[in-house]
Amino acid sequence: MVPVVYQDGHALLQRVVCGRFSNNAYVLVCRATGEGLLVDAPEEPEKVLQALQGVRVRAILLTHRHPDHWAGLASIKTALHAPVGIGEADADGLPVPPDFVIADGQVFPFGRLALRAMATPGHTPGSTCFLWGRYLLSGDTLFPGGPGHTRTPQDFRQIVESIRRHLLVLPEETVVLPGHGEGTTIGKAREEYALFASRPHPPDLCGDVLWAG
Ligand SMILES: [Zn+2]
């Protein structure tokens, strides 16, 4: 059973939990036209394809280059015949070259609806978040309680800057749906970040950082 995140007369947004790292693939469908988008292509592609039955997929969008987010890409692409896109700085991290690179602010229509991409480097150089209405698909950039993993202090400063400038400015009721596990809201993330920002931190901070840590 695929959990339905959001549904009304116009649209359907499904979260499909896949594989040993509990990756979330997100399926967005315009109900009026049956056109849709897929965000991320993890292992257990059959679960994703099941959720996409009857949907004409306009594009497969990847949040970033880490293998757990594209482990099912080959079979999903073969089944759907849809073009694959990823942020330019992550484009060389895929097993096959993408069909297009995603620009900051690029809009992806599906039927009468549309999704907007935001470049949010830090977890990887080409990490991208996607905003649809009051839903933010945040990849491995923002999780409940903290930012995604970073490998260097520079990457950590960059992910915080991405989150601060592009994500925390969204309306507080915006629902954050990350690439793994459960979601949060921008309002909650803003409160958590404010606490973090009010305290001193070592200059070499990076890794798995919690705002409350
Ligand atoms: Zn990742």
Elements, N to C (H/E): EEEEHEHEEEEEEEEHEEH
The CATH class, by name, is Alpha Beta
What integer value in Å does the Rg equal?
16 Å
| Coarse structural class | alpha/beta
Largest sheet: 7 strands, mixed
**Taking all residues together, what is the mean pLDDT?**
96
Name given to the CATH architecture: 4-Layer Sandwich
Sheet with most strands: strand arrangement: 1-2-3-4-5-6-7
The number of domains: 1
Distance between the termini: 36 Å
Q: Which ligands appear in the coordinates?
A: zinc ion
CATH topology-level fold name? Metallo-beta-lactamase, Chain A
How would you name the CATH homologous superfamily?
Answer: Ribonuclease Z/Hydroxyacylglutathione hydrolase-like
Number of helices: 4
Number of strands: 15
Taking pLDDT < 50 over at least 5 consecutive residues as the criterion, the unreliable ranges are: none
Percent strand equals: 25-35%
Helix coverage percent? 10-25%
Gross morphology = globular
Describe this structure in words.
The protein is α/β, with parallel strands linked by helices and 213 residues long. It has one domain: Metallo-beta-lactamase, Chain A (4-Layer Sandwich), CATH 3.60.15.10. It has four helices and 15 strands. Helix 1 (45-51) runs parallel beside helix 2. The model has no long low-confidence stretch (mean pLDDT 96). Bound molecules: zinc ion. Residues 64, 66, 123, 140 line the site of zinc ion. Zinc ion (ZN) binds at residues 64, 66, 123, 140.
